[in-house]
Write a structure and sequence with these properties.
The protein is built from 14 helices and 4 strands. The chain is mainly α. The protein folds into 2 domains: about 240 residues, Fic-like fold (Orthogonal Bundle), CATH 1.10.3290; about 60 residues, Arc Repressor Mutant, subunit A (Orthogonal Bundle). It has a two-stranded antiparallel sheet with strand order 1-2. Strands 3-4 form a two-stranded antiparallel ribbon. A hairpin with a 2-residue loop joins β1 and β2. The termini are far apart.
């Protein structure tokens, strides 16, 4: 008894793809050999902000990193309400996305529900009408009919659960196929990028602190061009090559000052011993230090200046009740 043939998205594994996978694997391994330190937690927060900014900026959101950080911290932001809602939704999704399973349709719909809550009426539901990608008066892509979406998505998620392709390639193929199907009324771009990040993180957890979406935003026109080239070729290879190049660029820039603050060995030691909220004396004792002046000049002040550590009473820096904690905790 023969069943329906399993779906296989068309993708040519080119020498460029193989070379990029090899280069990315080496660089990702170097970043994953250490455990998650206090500095890594800080980088994770920076990456989240930059990922959200990059992905939403592609969709026209104008909020910058400072405003997104303020929303993340629960502070008041003066901006269009829709843009603030988009950021809040993205924060909610990025906070929990590592718990989702890439090939689970329930998780995919849940993710869309979070990303688009309060923005469209059918958040978390496949579209029931036709959609297309339009630039001005030009139709760039006409998505498959709505009635085919559940079947197409079922086939794609089934393929993702059993594919033999390297996760770097599989994630890029999924991203392209997802955008081609365009399963939702709105939010397809941001969810496609988030889902590829989820696949990357399942392969190597170092990607929770690598803002790939930010790099894609910097190459936005090339992103759309790669999608068009893949569609014209009826093969996702052009888009896979593009996305792998973006992932490699993100890894190469991960150690730059823009992404990872350069800190001294003294600051790194402070971050390692800082647990919860601690007084200056408690931190000194944990470090085995007795010279208060040296502690402030070489350890505490640089950590505060780098934004890695924050005061619990910032408006009274000399208060005897002052405590210190990792920024953003």
């Amino acid at each position: 008894m023969s069943g329906k043939p399993s779906y296989e998205p068309p993708v040519a594994i080119t020498p460029a793809i193989l070379g990029l996978v090899a280069d990315i694997s080496v660089k990702a391994d170097r970043l994953s050999v250490r455990g998650e330190s206090a500095l890594d937690l800080r980088l994770r927060r920076i990456s989240q902000v930059r990922s959200i900014k990059g992905s939403l900026a592609i969709e026209g959101n104008t909020l910058g990193e400072e405003a997104i950080t303020a929303v993340l911290d629960g502070k008041r932001v003066v901006a269009p309400l829709r843009e603030i809602q988009e950021v809040r939704n993205a924060i909610a999704a990025y906070d929990v996305f590592e718990k989702w399973t890439p090939h689970d349709e329930t998780d995919l719909l849940k993710a869309h529900g979070l990303l688009m809550a309060g923005l469209i009426d059918d958040a978390g539901l496949y579209r029931r009408g036709g959609v297309g990608v339009i630039a001005g008066s030009q139709v760039l892509h006409l998505a498959p009919p709505a009635k085919r979406v559940p079947l197409l998505m079922g086939d794609l998620l089934d393929w993702l659960s059993r594919t033999w392709l390297h996760p770097l390639v599989a994630g890029s193929v999924f991203h392209y196929e997802f955008e081609f199907i365009h399963p939702f009324t709105d939010g397809n771009g941001r969810l496609g990028r988030l889902w590829q990040t989820l696949i990357l993180c399942r392969w190597n957890p170092c990607f929770v602190r690598i803002p790939v979406e930010s790099i894609v935003h910097a190459h936005q026109e090339e992103y759309y061009q790669a999608l068009r080239e893949a569609t014209n070729a009826a093969d996702s290879a052009p888009f896979v090559e593009f996305m792998l190049a973006m992932i490699l660029e993100a890894l190469e820039s991960a150690a730059s000052p823009q992404v990872a603050p350069q800190v001294s060995p003294q600051v790194k030691r402070l971050l390692e011993v800082l647990s919860g909220e601690m007084s200056g004396r408690e931190i000194m004792e944990a470090l085995g230090l007795t010279d208060r002046k040296s502690f402030r000049q070489r350890y505490l002040a640089p950590a505060l200046d780098a934004g890695l550590v924050e005061m619990t009473i910032p408006d009274k820096p000399n208060s005897h009740l002052q405590r210190y904690r990792l920024a953003g905790t």
